Structures are given as C-alpha cells and as structure tokens.
Amino acid sequence: MRTWSLMGMALLLGTGTALAATPKPPSEAQVRQLMDVFGVDRMLGQMNSQMAAMMQQQLPCVPSDYWQGFIDAKGARELTERMVPIYQRHFSAADIQGLLKFYRSPLGKKVITEMPATMAEGMQLGQEWGRQRAQAMLAELQKSGRIDAQGRCPAAPAAAPGTKLVAPAAGTSSASP
C-alpha cells in the first residue's frame, strides 16, 4: 500500500511540475515579426503568380489580369490572421525568439533566400523518383500477373448495383468462356 501511495504522490508531483513548466505561448506580434522575417508577403506574391498562371491555363477565356488579384492585400491579411494561431499552438514565445534570432543571422537569411530553390529542386526530384518507383512497381505487378498490360486488375464479372461479388473458388478462373 505504501508503494502505491508513493507512486501516486510521484505522479501527482510530476504532473504538477509539468503543468507549472508549460511554456508561454507567443504573442500575435511575435508571430507576425517571424512572418515578416520569413518574407511571407513575398511568398504570397509568388503563390499568387503561380496560381494566376495555373488558372489561366485552366480557364483561358478569363483574362490573366483577373487572376493576378487572387492574393491581394486583403487576402494576404486574412491568410496571415488564420496562420498566427497555428504558430501559437506549435511554438512557445521562447521558440519564436530563437527563430527570430536565427533567421535574422547571416545563415538564417541564407536559408530564407535558398529555401524556395531547394524545395523546388527537391519536389522535382521527388516527383521523378516517385514516377520511377511507381513504374518499377507496376512492372513487377504485371510480371507477377496481378495486373494486366494496361495496368488494370484482371477482369472481374460486372455486378448489378447492390449485389455482392463472390470470389471464385481456389483453382478456378474468373474469366468468361
């Protein structure tokens, strides 16, 4: 009984300590400073240009200048207001201060400058790797007979809506004569 009491007391004390050590969340002003250092306005402008180009391809009948205002000043403010609470949930005030110190340093400034190109190259590499990996896996599935030459599952009898398909018995073929 004494062991359980000591363990319970330790848990209570441990919980109390953890609650007392809860880090202070950052203020809205701190988060906005970090967003300024990141260059969120610049990033939103780049996103706007990319979105405008994509929408122009999708809807060529709409003048391209229509899409240039997709992320205007009002939209940027709205998006920033929605992003602040996310940073407040994931970072403490001390974290934000540390990030501000880092991103204001020469190395931090370099990270901010080089990150868009690094991410773009990484995404391109990842897409190519994904295509190659998918092709290899599809070739393996074709070779094993799990999919046909067109990359589809072998033909199964079509069922009327609401009816259950029953798997063929082992050793039998599901193909029609």
Give a structural overview.
With 177 residues, the protein is an all-alpha fold. Among the domains are: 23-104, no CATH class; 113-152, no CATH class. The protein is 69% helix and 0% strand. It contains 7 helices and no strands. The chain has helices at residues 2-20, 28-38, 40-58, 64-67, 73-90, 93-104, 106-144. The longest helix has 39 residues, at 106-144. The protein is extended. The termini are far apart. The relative contact order is 0.08. Residues 1-18 and 165-177 have low confidence and may be disordered.
Q: What layout of secondary structure does this protein have?
A:
Layout: H1 2-20, H2 28-38, H3 40-58, H4 64-67, H5 73-90, H6 93-104, H7 106-144
Helix pairs in contact: 2-5, 2-6, 6-7
- The coarse silhouette is extended
Helix proportion range = 55-70%
Assembly state here? single chain
Distance between the termini: 76 Å
Major sheet attributes: none
According to DSSP, the number of beta strands is 0
What share of the residues does DSSP label as strand, in percent? under 5%
SSE sequence, one letter per element: HHHHHHH
The parts where pLDDT drops under 50 for at least 5 residues are 1-18, 165-177
Roughly how many Å is the radius of gyration?
28 Å
What value does the average pLDDT take? Answer: 79
Which structural class do you get from the secondary structure elements?
Answer: mainly alpha
Number of alpha- plus pi-helical segments:
7
